[in-house]
Amino acid sequence: MAARGGFFLSLLNYKTEKYVIAENRKIGILFRLYQLAVLGYIIGWVFVAKKGYQEKEEAIQTSVFTKLKGVALTNDSNKGLHLWGAEDYVIPPNGEQVFFVVTNYIETPNQRLGFCPEVNGRCTSDDDCEEGETVIAGNGIKTGVCINSTGTCEVHAWCPVEYSPRPQEPLLSAAENFTVYIKNFIRFPNFNFFRSNVLETAEANYLKNCTYDSETHPYCPIFHLGNLVSWTGSDFQEMAVKGGSVGILIEWKCDLDKDYSLCNPQYSFTRLDININNSVTSGYNFRYAKHFKDPKGESFRTLYKVYGIRFDIMVNGQGAFACDMILLYMMNTSSFYRERKFEIINFK
Amino acid sequence: MAARGGFFLSLLNYKTEKYVIAENRKIGILFRLYQLAVLGYIIGWVFVAKKGYQEKEEAIQTSVFTKLKGVALTNDSNKGLHLWGAEDYVIPPNGEQVFFVVTNYIETPNQRLGFCPEVNGRCTSDDDCEEGETVIAGNGIKTGVCINSTGTCEVHAWCPVEYSPRPQEPLLSAAENFTVYIKNFIRFPNFNFFRSNVLETAEANYLKNCTYDSETHPYCPIFHLGNLVSWTGSDFQEMAVKGGSVGILIEWKCDLDKDYSLCNPQYSFTRLDININNSVTSGYNFRYAKHFKDPKGESFRTLYKVYGIRFDIMVNGQGAFACDMILLYMMNTSSFYRERKFEIINFK
Amino acid sequence: MAARGGFFLSLLNYKTEKYVIAENRKIGILFRLYQLAVLGYIIGWVFVAKKGYQEKEEAIQTSVFTKLKGVALTNDSNKGLHLWGAEDYVIPPNGEQVFFVVTNYIETPNQRLGFCPEVNGRCTSDDDCEEGETVIAGNGIKTGVCINSTGTCEVHAWCPVEYSPRPQEPLLSAAENFTVYIKNFIRFPNFNFFRSNVLETAEANYLKNCTYDSETHPYCPIFHLGNLVSWTGSDFQEMAVKGGSVGILIEWKCDLDKDYSLCNPQYSFTRLDININNSVTSGYNFRYAKHFKDPKGESFRTLYKVYGIRFDIMVNGQGAFACDMILLYMMNTSSFYRERKFEIINFK
């Protein structure tokens, strides 16, 4: 046992497994075939699949363009009739991947810069209204005066300030019938592979009349807003009151080796603003203003608080990953011909 | 053969490979050096490269800011001269990563809410114009009357409704000469590594005059819109008529171990709305309105249908991946000193 | 040594490791337990964790909605008092993931289309002002006339053209006290696992009063803009003069097997427009216009050049990756009972 000659020396010993060589042609041929298969797999993986993997992970190119159609006539008891076209109810109007559709609103017309009572916050004396203080959740800057008639502080603001009760009914309930045309182009640049979710065999007339349905029209790119919401398990009219957020997921699982026409989009729909206790976070609203000048050149504005549904379109490319195949290769246990291979030693 | 003493007992046997130990210093030193290399590689991979991998995959931070320059004077036969600055032709104007440049438009001025004939859809009698029906592809809500002089339904709409013939010539053909300054900042947060596509050695004057060219000015961040389109293989004036979509890909392949100055962006350009049969999906347009009030406080608006080119800037970080290196390690076959290691057994 | 019988024949030999079997129950049980652990790990990884990995890599769904609060009163020496609400200083106003807050501005009111002197570029004679030429960095189209009094070319433009000196003080310095409420919803669709950064146990009152602080209020989703900037190491008032870009990173490292309440967001903050030599690329500004019509129906506009801070909210999902675990498995060296396992051979 020369290895006992010193720990340091033994460190320099070269340890290798001891092998058994079986001289049998059938087994040998099988063994070499197996090796060739493994080799082929590795080359295939490293040079072909891995390249595909990088493609997908770092350079999938996608472009989404949306266009809404539909008109709604609203009849506000105070402001009369108003006609909403896509140029009004889609924000922003420029066909983006994430867009917002107005379903309800509070309009405060003819606001002018001046002094008026706040609607939020109570005061009993001028001491409650420190001059120059910014009311974070309010509409203006306090002037230091408490107005008795309203019981609120006077503010320097766009007057009259917005009074926004909790909305009960969606004014644009007709938004349920609007449609959105989603154009999605994808490209795998290293393969110079293009694809669009608009069927290339589709006739112009098909696209003018079809509406997406997972069963009957799975490749029609035109979606009914009411359906989009109902497919997430929510009710459109209910969501329309205070707003919400819906995700439209487009998945492209394309095997680039296979036929071009097999690469088709899969749509799925989900509500994005779900919470277990949604009392606090529910709803989606924001404000914007339209500015005007009167004949004297004085500014005034109409303030809109709009409630509505935000649609996020998310596009995913193919996601198969080859790492698990390495594992399968590692799990090979070569359990043939067990007995011949083992020396049995009585350990203790 | 004690292993035959029972299947259950044999399950409790501990099986290990049988090793050969070679007492030879040269080989031993080589072997230990090899082990150290493997160990160093593993430590390097697990603690350094893997961290880098996570960085890249989940936490590359990037920020893109765009600014367009150029002015165009349009001479519309109906509406006279109009001057377009970046504040008008870039939508949205706030320097986003995805922006739209107007190249053509149809203006419908002085629309007021009222009743007028539709331009789409034919009718022969009032029965064709069901009251209250929403015309999805139309401009308003039917009143139930068919107007004989036009042969179309009367609608409640912003009147007169837009009449939009297929555009033939781009009104803003001068947009070809606009330039876009693209500022792209990237950051690998775990390494606290910053980088911008604006050359740090560049003098202020260089940036005032240069224009990107892959050969002569590969690091100039100012792009000529005409060039951007032509590098995708398309013609700007042709695309300008009905609009289109162009992708600008910025790739950062930075080896963070190497010199800071070697980490530079690579630009590539691609048309994103290509289809084999592009008759249906071609073009990019949307509508927006400017709202006004007359001296009496009545609302009116100017509706714009704008055609143009959308530019999507896509930023990719470095994508090398370490998994294949494990594979190489696994492929090591230790084929040295073959004869000594093997026992040859006549298998049957 | 039958292997010498021919290279070709030897290729068909089947080579396997030679094993030692130790008949010892304690070791055997340990060994089988170890094997079960490895097997369980592999099954767990392939069927459970890998699924989780794909989830994270290709289908994490996220939705961000922002809402700013705060009012600022600006006192411009020329244009008098102006009140800025969120509907004015947030661009775009619709609660997007990337938003811009105005901190400074230059207003050019009452511009009308016409002819006036340029402010940029010098001329000494009409020859310096070639008619019809587009001044790329200018405001209009040259008419061919050099105006002596100003020493600049006459242009066809929105007049008077903007005169924009380098800003010195931020007009909206009060923007430091604005707050932003960030709602972030995430979803792992294959697990149907939802989560929001808004604490579900939080009372409505908590959200009305809290402000995020990494120590005292790590799960409050309301951020003070001044803090956001100071946490990146920058000074708000300094950045407010010419603008800048700030990244807000939200990281979700959720172990989906563990308790739902352990899956919480981690926030981090970074300045995105940092450069070593920032003389050229610093600042963030753009222009937009508000359009008006006078009683005669003639158009005029107010041009705003706004400086401000862009906030990019970036959401990352969990990033643990199982590949390194394979490595650990491979590193197992079975170094027990060394002596019994080795045959010592004197190699030369």
Automatic annotation (TrEMBL), chains A, B, C:
<feature type="disulfide bond">
    <location>
        <begin position="123"/>
        <end position="146"/>
    </location>
</feature>
<dbReference type="InterPro" id="IPR053792">
    <property type="entry name" value="P2X_RECEPTOR_CS"/>
</dbReference>
<dbReference type="InterPro" id="IPR001429">
    <property type="entry name" value="P2X_purnocptor"/>
</dbReference>
<keyword id="KW-1003">Cell membrane</keyword>
<keyword id="KW-0325">Glycoprotein</keyword>
<feature type="binding site">
    <location>
        <position position="305"/>
    </location>
    <ligand>
        <name>ATP</name>
    </ligand>
</feature>
<keyword id="KW-1133">Transmembrane helix</keyword>
<protein>
    <submittedName>
        <fullName>Uncharacterized protein</fullName>
    </submittedName>
</protein>
<keyword id="KW-0547">Nucleotide-binding</keyword>
<dbReference type="GO" id="GO:0005886">
    <property type="term" value="C:plasma membrane"/>
</dbReference>
<feature type="disulfide bond">
    <location>
        <begin position="129"/>
        <end position="153"/>
    </location>
</feature>
<keyword id="KW-0407">Ion channel</keyword>
<keyword id="KW-1015">Disulfide bond</keyword>
<keyword id="KW-0813">Transport</keyword>
<keyword id="KW-0472">Membrane</keyword>
<keyword id="KW-0406">Ion transport</keyword>
<feature type="binding site">
    <location>
        <begin position="67"/>
        <end position="69"/>
    </location>
    <ligand>
        <name>ATP</name>
    </ligand>
</feature>
<dbReference type="GO" id="GO:0004931">
    <property type="term" value="F:extracellularly ATP-gated monoatomic cation channel activity"/>
</dbReference>
<dbReference type="InterPro" id="IPR059116">
    <property type="entry name" value="P2X_receptor"/>
</dbReference>
<dbReference type="GO" id="GO:0033198">
    <property type="term" value="P:response to ATP"/>
</dbReference>
<feature type="binding site">
    <location>
        <position position="179"/>
    </location>
    <ligand>
        <name>ATP</name>
    </ligand>
</feature>
<feature type="disulfide bond">
    <location>
        <begin position="210"/>
        <end position="220"/>
    </location>
</feature>
<dbReference type="InterPro" id="IPR027309">
    <property type="entry name" value="P2X_extracellular_dom_sf"/>
</dbReference>
<dbReference type="GO" id="GO:0001614">
    <property type="term" value="F:purinergic nucleotide receptor activity"/>
</dbReference>
<comment type="similarity">
    <text>Belongs to the P2X receptor family.</text>
</comment>
<dbReference type="GO" id="GO:0005524">
    <property type="term" value="F:ATP binding"/>
</dbReference>
<keyword id="KW-0812">Transmembrane</keyword>
<feature type="disulfide bond">
    <location>
        <begin position="116"/>
        <end position="159"/>
    </location>
</feature>
<feature type="transmembrane region" description="Helical">
    <location>
        <begin position="29"/>
        <end position="48"/>
    </location>
</feature>
<dbReference type="Pfam" id="PF00864">
    <property type="entry name" value="P2X_receptor"/>
</dbReference>
<dbReference type="GO" id="GO:0098794">
    <property type="term" value="C:postsynapse"/>
</dbReference>
<keyword id="KW-1071">Ligand-gated ion channel</keyword>
<keyword id="KW-0067">ATP-binding</keyword>
<feature type="glycosylation site" description="N-linked (GlcNAc...) asparagine">
    <location>
        <position position="177"/>
    </location>
</feature>
<dbReference type="GO" id="GO:0070588">
    <property type="term" value="P:calcium ion transmembrane transport"/>
</dbReference>
<feature type="binding site">
    <location>
        <begin position="285"/>
        <end position="287"/>
    </location>
    <ligand>
        <name>ATP</name>
    </ligand>
</feature>
<feature type="disulfide bond">
    <location>
        <begin position="254"/>
        <end position="263"/>
    </location>
</feature>
